[in-house]
Structure prediction request, 213 residues.
Amino acid sequence: MGGRFEFNPWLTIFVKPRKTIRAIVDFNPNFRLLVLSAIYGFCSLLGVAQNFGLGDKKEMLFTMLPLLLLAPVWGYLVFSFSSWFVFIMGKLLKGQGTYRQVRSAYAWSNVPLIVNALLWILLIAVFKSSLFSETALKGILTQGSSMLLIGAVFSQLIFSLWGLVIYIISLSEVQRFSILKTLVNLFLGFLLFFLLALTVSLILMKLGASSTV
Prediction:
């Protein structure tokens, strides 16, 4: 790590998240933020591509390429936007973490997604565009490929849950909260986001109704 740390944070974040995130935020809360944004954005946008069945569309690569190029931007926006809600509600609970430290805790909790990204690449190599088309995928599944797909999905779930555990522990470290108080912080952050989203939706619906009168 170029002398920055006495350990490799990409590895220790899995087993020693408190020690790792403390060293990172003390050094630079923005450390490797764009790399982690790209990793999150890559997995997230591929999930979007699959959910919307882009494999059913013509010229799928031309549709997916802009999504992949936007991965770092999308990941950065998600990290920054969601962390703001957690930070604001954490302040009400007397949290000690700065905004950048709270965002760093979220960003570094996504290191397990590296495994998910590799699994995405493996699945794309095996199933190609059929992976993003439910009808085409069903037509080519064999017993072996079905087991591969199920195993990959299960592994992605496990590493995503691992990332959630890392996030809770890392956030508790930067906020100097207990685990229970950290969960309250996350819940209130989600609640604030939900209320703001609901308010904006109601305003837009009201404006839409008014424009049709």
